[in-house]
Amino acid sequence: MPISFLAAAALPAPWRTALVAVALTGAALGAAPVQAQAQAQAQAQNQNAADLGQLTQSWVDAALQQTPQSSPLRMEVDVGALDERLRLAPCARVEPYLPAGARLWGRSRLGLRCLEGATRWNVFLPLTIKAYGPAWVLTANVPMGTALTEADATQAEVDWAAEPASVVADPSMWVGQVASRQLLAGQTLRQSMVRAPHLFKTGAQVRVVAEGPGYAVSATGQAMAAGAVGQTVRIRMANGRIISGIVDETGAVSAAL
What we know:
By secondary structure, this protein is α+β, with helices and mostly antiparallel strands. It contains two helices and 14 strands. It has helices at residues 5-9, 13-65; strands spanning 74-79, 93-97, 106-116, 122-138, 153-159, 178-179, 194-195, 198-200, 205-212, 215-223, 227-228, 232-237, 242-247, 253-256. Strands 1, 2, 3, 4 and 5 form a five-stranded antiparallel sheet that branches. Strands 9-10-12-13-14 form a five-stranded mixed β-barrel. A two-stranded antiparallel sheet has the order 6-7.
């Protein structure tokens, strides 16, 4: 029979001490299963997170091996961790996948979805992929509009995936090109940083060559924008007609009528 607080107070001191000891022991025994259950859940969650991380790493490694590279690159993969607040239900089969718009390059993410489990879930892991390889790094500042020379850059190993724009690894693709903006020493040369030099300015008189089946016509028109080799520009002809054409290496504009 339970002993009330008042009844226990009336007991002799040795009995009261023994009673308190018994009560504390019972409380500890009652708390032990709760603590053990919490520890087991925490361990299971940690193991689940570790398994998902290993699965992700294996999937990414296999995917990168199947991705063709234009030049030998040393790949490094850093798989992030799931949000600690997530409590994922057990799953017999988890499928990694690349979300729409994501790619295995730079900062990205990888999806994980449960295909066989009592509760279906879908989560995303942060992912960082670095691709180290030889590239050209600027040795000094280059003002906008200045043509680059071989002395403006030196070769070094850099992370190609650090920025979205492609690395310009071949010197023939940037020597003689013009800085499209202010460039700073230490920057890796990428396609968005250079452009072909303009062969004529806005308003300049340019030669227009129009070709068709069995004929070729040459005339002069006014450029409505600056033009570089390979660019499509609009030209206002003497009669007021506006045509479009592609700038060739000589600065003439080839148009089809």
